[in-house]
Amino acid sequence: MTRGRIRARIRQSNLYTFGCVRPNTTETQNPQSLQGPGYSRIVHCNEPHVHKKKPLKYCSNYISTTRYNVVTFLPKAFFEQFRRVANIYFLVAAICSLFSFSPFTPLSMIAPLAFVLGVSMAKEAVEDWHRFIQDMKVNNRKASVHKGDGVFGYKQWRNIGVGDVVKVEKDQFFPADLLLLSSSYEDGLCYVETMNLDGETNLKVKRSLEATLPLDSDESFKDFTGMIRCEDPNPSLYTFVGNFDYDRQIYPLDPNQILLRDSKLRNTAYVYGVAIFTGHDSKVMQNATESPSKRSTIERKMDRIIYVLLAALLGISLISSIGFFVQTKYQMPDWWYLQPENPMSCYDPKKAVASGLCHFVTALMLYGYLIPISLYVSIEMVKFLQAIFINGDLDMYDEQSGVHAHARTSNLNEELGQVDTILSDKTGTLTCNQMDFLKCSIAGTAYGAGSSEVELAAAKQMAIDLEEQDPEISSTFTVRDNRNQFGASEIELETVVTSMSGKRKKCAIKGFSFDDSRLMEGNWMKEPKPDMILLFFRILALCHTAIPEVNEETGEITYEAESPDEIAFLVSAKEFGFEFCKRTQTSVFVREKYPSPVEREYKILNLLDFTSKRKRMSVIVRDEEGQILLLCKGADSIIFDRLAKNGRVYEEATSKHLNEYGENGLRTLALAYRKLGESEYSAWNDEFVKARTSIGADRDAMLERVSELMEKDLVLVGATAVEDKLQKGVPQCIDKLAQAGLKLWVLTGDKMETAINIGFACSLLRPGMKQICVTATSPDTLGQDSKKAIKENIIMQITNASQMIKLEKDPHAAFALIIDGKTLTYALEDDVKHQFLGLAIDCSSVICCRVSPKQKALVTRLVKEGTGKTTLAIGDGANDVGMIQEADIGIGISGVEGMQAVMASDFSIAQFRFLEKLLVVHGHWCYKRIAQMICYFIYKNIAFGLTFLYFEAVTAFSGQSIYDDWYMILFNVFVTSLPVISLGVFEQDVSAEVCLQFPALYQQGPKNLFFNWYKIFGWMTNGLVASIIVFTINVLFFYEQAFRSGGQMADMTAVGTVMFTCIVWVVNCQIALTMSHFTWIQHLFIWGSIAFWYLFLFIYGLFSPIYTGNVYRILVEVLAPAASFWAATLLATVTCNLLYFCHISIQRCFYPMDHHIIQEIKYYKKDVRDHLMWTRERSKARQETKIGFTARVEAKIRLLKGRLHKKHLAVGS
Q1: Which of 128, 216, 281, 425 is catalytic?
Q2: Is 425 a catalytic residue?
Q3: In this predicted model, what pLDDT tens digit does every residue of 1035-1057 receive, in sequence order?
Q4: Which residue in 110, 264, 704, 1123 has the fewest CB atoms around it within 10 Å?
């Protein structure tokens, strides 16, 4: 607390000029008008009991992201289950089984349905329970709340109510939306990190009203009361309108006094605030959408398949009932031995029509095996097991955090293999919120020998591709540390390549990866321009708003700053020998090691802080010699425009270096200075003070104009290049996903410049790519005309950009669309959004900047609904929850900043790079497994179910089943279920390693090559043929032939048993032919299922005939001794599967798919014997892409070839 009190003496408001500070006048002059709807909320401060009764009773602070609760679980879960058409059919069939016309007992129909529904609902309950546990972790967090008489105590978050006074300490999250009353700083400032809300890592400065500054201790709240009138709950994160009635005066409130739930207090010992919005009324929860119930594309298509099968069922039932009607009306009277005992029976010839209708219902149940009821529960089991394998994949385990991948719902496993577009957050997802000082340019000289991760990986890939694609060029061209053999003006692969291994030595200092001995250890004093280098270091140490924190035990200094860039600059200045060590109300102290160790004091006269509009910041200081200096850093385009004529000495060289840094994905800033005379500064400062203390809407504009007067005639010193550290493996992952044919959109709350820099860093953008920036320009008109003019301008920009893309003739041309949140507001309107989507689809990459959580969700919905293809959203913060829930698949990053994204997601991973294996391997496998599993299920049920129809046709449509009831129960439960489950869990067309080497294989999913109607009807036809062959062979063998050695004919039980045995063999051998990858488990399940059938038949035959009827000892005494039994089984098995074997043989020989070729190469080990051929095949198999390392390398190779060609032409001429 000692350190906190020292810092609290600083009046931080003196450091800021723009948004966070009010003029130094009374705050009572302009209370805001809060008339009309939308402004009805009244909050009685420190009187939470008032809000326990209507009309001031507001929602509690309890939050829930679950899909169900105790009351809604059964109705919602039943609704989910009966969205499946097959379940509705079997419900009707179960009800019909209660009546006398049913061919089956009620138990045999109700039990399977209850089992299927029970398993599915239990799985839903378990998954939702896990969400509930995550919610409770948040709801049970504790915060310090005023209990009365100036005493604070801890309350769980869920028990905090509107009006409660809350004390939040450093590095804690705000439990609700609070009105800031005071802080540990005497002028009520506090620093807030809003990364969970808008994705930005830089700290925001909030400031309380001056009237509430005395409320700076627990005791001061003993008699505190006040009333807030403000806007109703809404999702806008950046606006707030309200008035605060306190101490008989009314004060206007704005967003600068509001602390939003799930943002974090940083760099401030404590704050006091009043809860305004709690729970689902808070702005972050207002941005959340209701947890949706998602169904995969395959599951939705399954419903259409069920409709087809139902139509077939109705058709054959109708045919059967017509046949029964004819038999009953015209032939039944002659069959005296079949006369009905009961006149009301469904077999009455006098009521043939009624009998036909009755038989129609019987037939619907009898042929019900065409509808695979066990398919759903089998898929549920398979998906559950697939999820276990995903969770246990060690390649997706993050050692640093100890977090595994987690399939939070298994309903969407196969959807992972059909993704078309990925929508990603930036901060915390692509980047790890860390800046590293890597290079710099001082006085026209480039310093820094290190290479960014992007440079190294791209250089390595280029060297490989050069060797693969053109050995002649590879032999002519040599990758060197700096430039190629053609000289400095010729082609560069990369500015610096320190290691072709792509591994860079890890630096021990966080934020400082600079490597150049010329500037280290004071060696810069030997450089040609030491005075400029000295000035460069001083700008790094002085031009900022950071605050040093001294560790009282070690004496080590760390920094708290508004942005990670500033921390990187200060750490770098410290390493160069210029350590920022202390800040007071009016001064900054720097320990300078060189030329001689000394602690210098610099008087802070003014600070012109950074805004997204200004794109620069300046500080005016007076050094110990009395010289006044303006030190400025900012975007190079802004700084260069403000240079004096004599300040442009190093402009050309610095510009060249900045371009090189930008191409390598580094974030750059230019540094400049200006010397000021005493009189000049005094005159300007008078104007600045007037602007700063003015009142009115044009105050910021006045400050900007005055600042412009000072920030001119600058002298360029140099430039910095920092690496916005990407998460490990992000560029490689994006490249692999691009090769897999996936599109990537980045949706971020960050500034446009930051997003563009990251785009370059991870190769979503590259030099030569044409950037289309769609922005909303502000017209001169106001009101509705203004909005209309902005909208028309945006439409014109979109139209022109679309036309430009269509007219582009270069096949290698790539376009990137960049758009900000303000423009998106118009672009997402109904009459514009389809034009915007069309343009975005035509572009290779899309970056949306400054977007709110709601806009993220709306963009995701537009892509999902507009393209009709599978979308995946990935993010790590509460601001990403909307898009994660809106997308077909939501991926949450288990980051350090809360678990909101994970709680709302379908899958969670610890690092973005794990997305590569999740999609390219697990997604590919799961899609093919589920697709093949469903097709096989349809095949085996048709092969089995149609034998009922054929038997009916030769037995006068009697409604009699040829199979024993136990056979039918066994068919889906035991003798065919385990093999198909093993197919769904263990099948691999290629190994994980090959999937990653040939990412283009992933496109089999988005193109739906294994679950299209051609495939589905093919398997249906296969089942139809198999059923005909099995029935025909059995009829030919047993219709007029002696079955046993004594000359006896086969009865219905014997024929049914033989036919069922044939079906068991045929479908199990069929699945063996379908599989590409065998383990002992598949062999056990397939051949074990067949063996189990014989074992069952043997044991079942031992029971008394009272229970088994004609099945008594049927295997031992009837079937086993008969040669025709074994002959029929063998002939049916070979004949049915021979047709499929011929089909796959022809396909592999004449129409092979990609994985067939790879399987053959791997089988004959050609990848080992001929490594160059394997590498060549990998290159040929890449999906054509215009983003990622591969596209970047290919673009450079084209450039290289073009320049070499020109060079050869020049030499030849």
Answers
A1: 425
A2: yes
A3: 888 877 777 667 777 888 889 99
A4: 1123
